[in-house]
Amino acid sequence: MAKGVLNLFNVLLPFIITPYVYRVLGAHNMGNIDYATVLFGYFGMLGMSGIYNYGLREISAHRNNRKVVTDTYKNLFCIGLITNLLFLAIYILFILFFIHDPELKRISYILCGNLVSQIIYVEWYNEAMEEFKFITVKTVLIRLISFIFIFTLVRNESDEYIYVMITVAVAVLNYLVSYIYSRKKISISWRDLLKQSKELQACTALQFFDPRRNKPHSQCRCNTRAECGRILYINIRYCSTQGLSEEELYICTGVCRRRGHASLCLFFFLNKYNLQDN
Fold first, then answer.
1. How much is the pLDDT for 251?
2. What span, in angstroms and rounded, lies between the C-alpha atoms of 62 and 72?
3. What are phi and psi of 12, to 5 degrees?
4. Rounded mean pLDDT of 131-143?
């Protein structure tokens, strides 16, 4: 019932707002906004990296297993943090070097807020846990707020930037409320999330690149990437305190003590990822 109300609301509201916005801002301004939004959409899609579909599927399948749900939430949040920050930097460079129209460039900069807000996008968790009542109430209230602000503040063609800022603010508020609500069910500290992010970075490089052989690893047998990264990080912390030479560091390697061995140039990671203890 709640999801049906939400779908109906999502269909009806644009029928009211869209004609008004096009009439007030004009074809030229709306053309710039639509063009900038389409360009941003590619970077936003890359920033999400399929997190929504994967998170929805995995948590739906294991919603009664708290450990699996927590681990999935933590891993996907960290991946989203890394990918969205990466593509935010790429998007800013794209704006600087490839967008020359001043008006279009300002709109694109405002849209950067959407990529930042995607870091805390966890609606896949709420949907997987079937929190449809919360999603419906939240979405309806936020959309009504945006409806009021648009009809109050967007009154002529010069208000195009205000309209873009309202749309970005609505997205940020929507994601923020969902994130706060999900954190009531998932007890994870930001310190844990940042630690997990570092482990995922190390493990990703471990599984896909061997600096001595310049080819993918085939010997890592950890159950998960997080497990591999955690063991790798422990070994790096130990070996970096022993005063070993570069060759000795390579021999020391990141050894997966639980399930086998993974050949790794430890010196490469110490320099590239700065994983030494401070």
1. 42
2. 10
3. -75, -40
4. 90
Other Cβ atoms less than 10 A from the Cβ of 238: the count is 11
Strand-pairing partners, residue 117, are none
Q: How far apart, in Å, do the first and last CA atoms of the chain sit?
A: 54
Question: Residue 86 burial by CB count (10 A; 0-12/13-18/19+): exposed, middle or buried?
Answer: middle
- The CA-CA-CA angle for residues 48, 51, 53, to 5°, reads 120
List, in order, residues 6 or more apart from 44 with CB less than 8 Å away. 87, 114, 115, 118
Please state, for a pLDDT cut of 90, what percent of the chain lies above it. 46
Quote the pTM value.
0.70
Residues with Cβ within 8 Å of residue 164, at least 6 apart in sequence: 33, 36, 107, 110, 111
Name the packing angle between helices 190-208 and 66-98 (round to 10°): 80
Residue with tokens 């999900």: 182
Interacting residues of 190 by C-beta distance below 8 A, sequence separation 6+? none
The tokens for 153 are 């503040």
**Cα distance between residue 63 and residue 130, in whole Å:** 10
**Which stretch of 19-33, 156-170, 186-200 has the lowest confidence by average pLDDT?**
186-200
Q: Whose CA is closest to 40, among 168, 154, 170?
A: 168
Rg (CA), the chain: 23
- For the chain, how many residues are written? 278
DSSP string over 96-151: HHH---HHHHHHHHHHHHHHHHGGG--HHHHHHTT-HHHHHHHHHHHHHHHHHHHH
d(CA 32, CA 105): 10
The tokens describing 43, both together, are: 């970077």
Select from 199, 217, 200 the least CA-distant residue to 208. Answer: 217
CB 142 within 8 A of CB 176: no
